[in-house]
């Protein structure tokens, strides 16, 4: 039975930590790379479901700055897989856009070229923006933002007492994007792993034991259904939220 959703309360921005590829493969006696291969295929299905649901931004934690410390052959396989699955046709068919956040300069040239091409050919599309967090971590992102702001102060472009939350938002990788209303982590772990720490200050968290290769569109709908059953208070009391919604 399909999960019933309130289509008037679909989150604009869903962020996902795609965890469990390696464990999924190990359970089946496969190499870890086979888990990543199946996980990449699942990205296609989830992106298409995001388009169907009307989600504006779907941000996927694809490769962290810490992942550079993995075995060289696994990193190389992940990079090759990334290029293989950046399929222009999939985005054109779904009228979806593409964006990347992270330290792109560290990526291999073929990956950077594939990214640039896909961003360019999808820039005028109108539906879901699939955002890949590549060579990304929040600590790297926030450190970079602080350095950029400090440089602007030194150059006289900005006064220190003018710095506020919006100033920081404008210097983050996610500039121009709404903050995630819903953060999903697959694979059973319950931590953020250095992902969108600033942006998720008031996100609703959803943790599932389902490994990413098994995270189907129906699992996404379950997560959104759970999100819709919560009251988002942003520091206010439940009574205040009810009163404001009744005005």
Please trace the helix and strand order, writing H or E for each element: EHHEHHEHEHHEEHH
C-alpha geometry: globular
Helix % is 40-55%
Q: What about the largest sheet?
A: 6 strands, parallel
Strand content: 5-15%
Say how many strands there are. Answer: 6
The pLDDT mean sits at 93
| Strands ordered across the widest β-sheet | 3-4-2-1-5-6
Distance between the termini: 35 Å
- Residue ranges: pLDDT <50 for 5 or more in a row? none
Instruction: Please state the structural category.
Output: alpha/beta
User: Counting H and I runs of at least 4 residues, what is the number of helices?
Assistant: 9
Computed CA radius of gyration, to the nearest angstrom: 19 Å
Describe the protein's architecture and organization.
It contains 9 helices and 6 strands. It has 247 residues and is α/β, with parallel strands linked by helices. It is globular and about 60 Å long. Helix 5 (109-122) links the parallel strand 3 (97-101) and strand 4 (129-136). It has a 6-stranded parallel sheet with strand order 3-4-2-1-5-6, sandwiched between helices. It is 43% helix and 14% strand. The protein has helices at 21-27, 32-53, 72-85, 88-94, 109-122, 138-154, 165-170, 217-228, 238-245, and strands spanning 13-17, 57-64, 97-101, 129-136, 182-185, 204-207.
A few lines on this structure:
By secondary structure, this protein is α/β, with parallel strands linked by helices. The chain contains nine helices and six strands, in the order βααβααβαβααββαα. The model has no long low-confidence stretch (mean pLDDT 93).
């Amino acid at each position: 039975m399909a999960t019933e959703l309130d289509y008037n309360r679909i989150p604009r921005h869903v962020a996902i930590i795609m965890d469990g590829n390696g464990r999924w493969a190990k359970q089946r006696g496969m190499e870890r790379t086979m888990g990543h291969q199946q996980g990449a295929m699942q990205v296609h299905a989830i992106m298409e479901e995001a388009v169907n649901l009307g989600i504006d931004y779907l941000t996927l934690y694809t490769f962290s700055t810490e992942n550079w410390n993995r075995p060289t052959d696994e990193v190389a396989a992940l990079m090759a897989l990334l290029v293989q699955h950046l399929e222009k046709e999939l985005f054109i068919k779904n009228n979806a856009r593409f964006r990347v956040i992270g330290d792109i300069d560290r990526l291999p040239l073929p990956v950077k070229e594939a990214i640039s091409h896909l961003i360019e050919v999808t820039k005028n599309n109108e539906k879901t923006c699939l955002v890949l967090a590549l060579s990304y971590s929040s600590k790297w992102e926030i450190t970079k933002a602080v350095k950029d702001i400090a440089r602007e102060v030194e150059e006289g472009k900005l006064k220190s007492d003018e710095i506020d939350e919006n100033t920081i938002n404008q210097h983050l990788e996610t500039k121009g994007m709404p903050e995630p209303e819903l953060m999903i982590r697959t694979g059973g772990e319950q931590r953020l792993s250095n992902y969108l720490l600033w942006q998720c200050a008031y996100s609703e968290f959803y943790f599932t034991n389902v490994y990413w290769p098994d995270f189907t569109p129906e699992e996404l709908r379950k997560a959104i259904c759970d999100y819709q059953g919560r009251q988002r208070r942003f520091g206010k009391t439940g009574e205040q939220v009810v009163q404001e919604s009744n005005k």
